[in-house]
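dumping this here so i dont lose it
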């Protein structure tokens, strides 16, 4: 069971339509984010950057 749940407007997806879970994990963990050009909706990344998981 997750300890916290967040509601987001969109999930980053590749141009082929696959969810990009690793990208989201890297954003949440403040790791380096690469290859945003492969996303069909790169604007969705900003919402994940604003999530504060330790509050």
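and the seq i came up w/
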């Amino acid at each position: 069971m997750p300890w916290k749940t967040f509601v987001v407007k969109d999930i980053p997806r590749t141009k082929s339509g696959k969810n990009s879970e690793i990208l989201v994990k890297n954003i949440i963990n403040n790791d380096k984010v690469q290859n945003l050009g492969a996303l069909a909706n790169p604007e969705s990344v900003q919402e994940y950057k604003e999530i504060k998981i330790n509050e």
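Residues 12 and 20 are 6 Å apart (CA to CA).
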